[in-house]
């Protein structure tokens, strides 16, 4: 049984990288198999193998305005499914705004997964971090669980069921009230949504949410196991309308 693990526990420096000033390097990296970020114009892409036994390589396939696409190939054997062995993701580069100043957060996330061995254990997620100040540690993590492969499951307490646009989600809350997970009831391969609506539907005081800064936005996959598998993001597009 795999448990959703906070992104901060996996790559603690991620927010510091993603919320830095937008980088000027617009070049697309070729295949890269090392751990760590690849900063680009609008996004920072991550190829993070969290275990020395993991074989994983990624390549960015598109970078067009607000759109980014990439493929990650991996070969991961794992009998302990409590913690992910790897992750692959991209995070938007932006100057953190107050939540109260955000009108909409248009998001598109189209992806495909393939694993001929049929032993894939992974989750596909879109997420955001909130903080009391632009450059301090995150106070809240908001996770949208788009799809679960294998026996992966969410941790936390069920709160309620909400409709975000046309998407029905079960909402879970961590024991310490810092991680909120929206589990899409029908697996979604082509998310099109206003992510601000997830913030509007957090099960905490709305005034408290409005006082936070949005410091991090990402999309990708946490991987627990998969033989000769591929995660193919056709398009991740995120924008902020203030």
From TrEMBL:
GO MF entry, a single one: cellulase activity
Keyword Plastid annotated: no
Entry-linked Pfam families: Glyco_hydro_12 (PF01670)
Gene Ontology process terms (BP): polysaccharide catabolic process
Chain ranges passing through the membrane: none
Signal peptide (UniProt feature, chain positions): 1-16
Keyword Signal: yes
Matching SUPFAM superfamilies: Concanavalin A-like lectins/glucanases (SSF49899)
Keywords assigned: Carbohydrate metabolism, Glycosidase, Hydrolase, Polysaccharide degradation, Signal
Family from the record: Belongs to the glycosyl hydrolase 12 (cellulase H) family.
Protein name: Uncharacterized protein
């Amino acid at each position: 049984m795999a448990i959703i693990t906070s992104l901060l526990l996996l790559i603690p420096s991620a927010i510091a990288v993603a919320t830095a000033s937008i980088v000027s390097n617009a070049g697309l990296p070729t295949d890269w198999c090392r751990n760590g970020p690849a900063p680009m114009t609008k996004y920072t892409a991550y190829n993070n193998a969290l275990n020395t036994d993991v074989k994983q390589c990624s390549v960015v396939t598109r970078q067009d305005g607000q759109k980014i696409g990439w493929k990650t190939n991996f070969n991961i054997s794992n009998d302990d499914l409590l913690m992910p062995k790897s992750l692959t993701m991209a995070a938007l580069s932006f100057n953190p705004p107050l939540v109260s100043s955000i009108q909409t957060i248009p998001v598109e996330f189209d992806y495909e997964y393939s694993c001929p061995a049929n032993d894939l254990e992974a989750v596909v997620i879109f997420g955001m971090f909130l903080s009391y100040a632009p450059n301090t540690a995150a106070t809240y993590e908001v996770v949208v669980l788009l799809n679960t492969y294998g026996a992966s499951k969410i941790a936390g307490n069920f709160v309620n069921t909400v409709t975000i646009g046309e998407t029905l989600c079960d909402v879970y809350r961590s024991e310490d009230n810092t991680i909120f997970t929206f589990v899409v009831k029908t697996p979604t391969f082509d998310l099109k949504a206003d992510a601000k609506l997830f913030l509007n539907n957090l099960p905490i005081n709305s005034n408290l949410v409005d006082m936070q800064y949005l410091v991090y936005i990402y999309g990708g996959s946490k991987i627990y196991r998969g033989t000769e598998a591929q995660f193919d993001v056709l398009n991740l597009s995120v924008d902020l309308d203030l």
